[in-house]
Design goal:
Elements lengths: L11 E5 L3 H13 L3 E5 L2 H10 L4 E5 L7 H9 L7 E5 L4 H10 L3 E4 L4 H12 L10 E4 L2 E4 L4 E4 L2 E3 L3 H12 L5 E2 H9 L9 H13 L8 E4 L3 E4 L4
Parallel strand pairs: 1-2, 1-3, 3-4, 4-5
Antiparallel strand pairs: 6-7, 7-8, 8-9, 10-12, 11-12
Length: 235
């Protein structure tokens, strides 16, 4: 049965997978959905292919022989290649996923997986613009955060922030107008394994308010009862 998850976007896809059974499953499903698939079983050949051939997306097994998937992607990202890449792997730990994404992968799919999920991830990547606009400054009302210089200011007043305070303010400003929960803050700033019973979030929110809100006429950081916190400009 042909699935229609990818809509009308037909792609030329590189599949770098040494497991013949898995490769047949993926390749046949992609072809049924209208895509063109080139299949390779060696990492070095996959790297050469990506450097000298035009394709829209690559699906790369992390443990492929010849040159492992991480090394292939790192080598690609060392060039000007913006090719969207999905890692396929049996390594599903958080650290493995982080390593794959930091190496330059755009997505990470753990085996075994449903083919419809792979199609959905391909669709999501194909919709992304080829050129990414890099944000170096965040601004809400008169509050400005310079992500390159790592400085904060309200109007003409420079505000000194510690490392965690800066990270917390960046998270709030990137989600301006939306509620950021305590759990989101803990996971983003202090990691998944941080003690959920600690008062570190409340302490840092209080410190931010002392620096960001208290010296000024308009408060920007608000507590949303039983939900979390929200940084927003006045109406």
């Amino acid at each position: 049965m042909v699935l229609s998850v990818c809509g009308d976007t037909l792609l030329k896809i590189l599949l770098a997978e040494d497991d013949e059974k898995a490769a047949d499953y993926i390749r046949n499903g992609l072809i049924e959905n209208g895509h063109t698939v080139d299949w390779l079983t060696d990492g070095r050949e996959a790297l050469t292919y990506c450097l000298y051939n035009q394709c829209d997306l690559a699906i790369i097994d992390r443990m492929i022989p010849g040159m492992d998937g991480l090394s292939v992607v790192r080598a690609l990202r060392a060039t000007t290649s913006k090719l969207p890449i999905i890692f396929l792997t049996a390594l599903g730990d958080v650290d493995d996923k982080v390593e794959g994404l930091l190496a330059g992968g755009d997505d990470y799919l753990v085996k075994p997986f449903h083919f419809s999920e792979l199609l959905a991830r391909i669709t999501a990547l194909s919709r992304r613009p080829h050129e990414t606009i890099v944000t170096t400054e965040l601004k809400v009302y008169d509050l400005t955060l310079d992500l390159l210089a790592r400085t904060a200011s309200r109007g003409e007043t420079v505000i000194e922030l510690k490392q965690k305070e800066f990270a917390l303010l960046e998270l709030l400003m990137k989600n301006a107008g939306r509620v950021v929960t305590r759990t989101m803050i803990l996971e983003s700033i202090w990691g998944f394994d941080f003690d959920p019973g600690t008062s570190v979030v409340e302490t840092h929110i209080s410190n931010l308010r002392q620096k960001i809100d208290k010296p000024f006429d308009v408060a920007l950081i608000h507590t949303v009862r039983n939900a979390g916190y929200s940084l927003r400009a006045p109406r």
